[in-house]
Amino acid sequence: MKTSRMSVKELLQSEDCGKEVEVKGWVRTKRGNKQVNFIALNDGSTINNIQVVVDMEKVAEEVMKKVTTGAAVHVEGLLVESTGSGQAREIQAKEVIVTGEADPEKYPIQPKKHSLEFLREVAHLRFRTNIFGAVFRIRHAMAFAIHQYFNDHGFYYLHTPLITASDCEGAGEMFRVTTLDPKNPPLLEDGSVDFRQDFFGKSTNLTVSGQLEGELGAMSLGKIYTFGPTFRAENSNTTRHLSEFWMIEPEVAFNDLEDNMDLAEDFLKYLIRYALEHCMDDLLFLSKRLQEEEKDKKAEERSMELIEKLQFVLNHDFERVTYTEAIDILKNSKQNKNGKFQYPVTGWGVDLQSEHERYLVEKHFKKPVILTGYPKEIKAFYMKQNPDGKTVAAMDVLFPQIGEIIGGSQREEDYNKLVTRMQEVGIPVSAMSWYLDTRRFGSAEHSGFGLGFERLLLFVTGMGNIRDVIPFPRTPKNAEF
Ligand code: ATP
Ligand code: MN
After folding, report:
1. CB 93 within 8 A of CB 57
2. How confident is the prediction for the chain on average, in pLDDT?
3. Which among 233, 104, 218 has a CA at the least distance from the CA of 173?
4. Closest ligand to 172 CA?
């Protein structure tokens, strides 16, 4: 009978000691002597390796020579209780077959510490390191948890378009989508490009947000969420910005700003709790690595231990503060008075930079903060106007290490106010009449927000650069693989 193949994860938890098993995976390391070799084997199912013990009298030396780091192997043997490997189980090999060699002279991922910068250059192979195995298992778990949360709470998953003809989604520069010949586009009399001759008969772009279409769904289905890629052609080369990133955007009819804040807080806490309950092995690995990196820092400069940091967020109510209060705090802070901010806080009306957001969270309140009531000038046209005439019902959730993780608002449901605002900021009202129809017919208060998936992952994994939490990052001047 053919023994059935098991994953390393299953084998490490198996109660079937003494049984014949079969496993396939990649060699992480091999060590040993003339009598016995030990292979650490990993197949991606868990951060942990299974140790394969090879009696050198039983397996040809020729075969064992090819068992090098990165090689794919197929092992059959006896599952036994481990005495020394630090794991509960190991395999006494009866047969080892190398199905794919990895020439140690050429294979870039050797068993030593590689820098994250180097691994970014070989992103097609970085999955094979412990650290990226951990990050991408957590990425999967978080994606799954997001769908779980919304499904459990009665939300419908809505697929909004990636190609859009509206260029007023209000969230930054867009990438053009066109099939016109870049060298010789059809021109109008005035010399501008004639997009009527383009593929869609008009100028189109990649979406920067699914919100506007999401609102249309919410105004009938009640509660919807989107979860898809978004594209921003901003030239921001920071550790928190990608040109292609994934965003989760719930939108709920009849929710006001407070409901929206409650949803954001409950949702984030659910996701963090899910990570703690389902990804502990990977989190422990990442935590150890971070502590290793910080061991030369002074105690006060070290960041909070990863798991402690996640629990910390779970155990605290997010501080809900208005923009106006925040500006007061920032303006009067020692940091500001001593000129320690790169962008000094001069007064009401300025946009907050990430250094300000992090000051509020890390130094002042020492917990996540939800900022509301931003000046309407620095926020998108669709946000609900407050009675003061100056501010809008915006809410940004600010996290330690990250700054803004969520941006959201209650939406303006009043047709006239919305149109007036669109005219003020120069948005073509006629091109947006499909959007305005939600306010023309059965308008109701509604709210939503956008969570940057990779920003969430930065927080949960403790990774320092957003390029390291997405498999193939797209950033200015970089679209490799
Ligand atoms: P920021 O001010 O940090 O650039 P934003 O205000 O432009 O962000 P929103 O338009 O509010 O961002 O988008 C909602 C969420 O999407 C943000 O809170 C953030 O988590 C995420 N996000 C925005 N831009 C990016 C980006 N370029 N790369 C990755 N995530 C992003
Ligand atoms: Mn924002």
Report:
1. no
2. 95
3. 233
4. 1
Helices (H), 155-235: 211-221
Looking at all shown ligands, the one closest to residue 374's CA atom is 2
Element (H, E) at 371: strand 369-375
Q: Is the CB of 467 under 6 A from ligand 1?
A: no
Spacing, Cα 409 to ligand 2 middle (Å): 10
Cross-strand bridge partners of residue 32: 37
Which ligand has an atom closest to residue 244 CA? 1
Tell me how far apart the 2 most distant CA atoms of the chain are, in Å.
Answer: 85
- For 279-330, write each residue's pLDDT tens digit: 999 999 999 999 998 888 887 778 889 999 999 999 999 999 999 999 999 9
170 CA closest ligand 1 atom index: 10
In short, whether 371's Cβ falls inside 6 Å of ligand 1 is: no
Q: Whose CA is nearest to atom 11 of ligand 1?
A: 407
Q: Is 245 in the pocket of ligand 1 (CB under 6 A)?
A: yes
* Confidence class for position 256, pLDDT limits 50, 70, 90: very high
What's the predicted TM-score (pTM) here?
0.96
Instruction: Report the residue count for the chain.
Output: 481
Mutation to probe ligand 1, out of 231, 247, 381, 478 (largest number of atoms < 8 A from CB)? 247
Q: Hey, what are 69's tokens?
A: 């780091």
pLDDT tens-digit readout, 428-470:
899 999 999 999 999 999 999 999 999 999 999 999 999 999 9
Residue nearest to atom 19 of ligand 1 (CA): 452
Residue with tokens 């412990």: 130
Question: Among the atoms of ligand 1, which is closest to the Cα of residue 466?
Answer: 29
pLDDT exceeds 80 at position 167: no
Q: Is the CB of 242 under 6 A from ligand 1?
A: yes
Does the pLDDT at position 216 exceed 90? yes
Model pLDDT, residue 48: 96
pLDDT digits (tens, 9 = 90+) for 372-389: 999 999 999 999 999 999
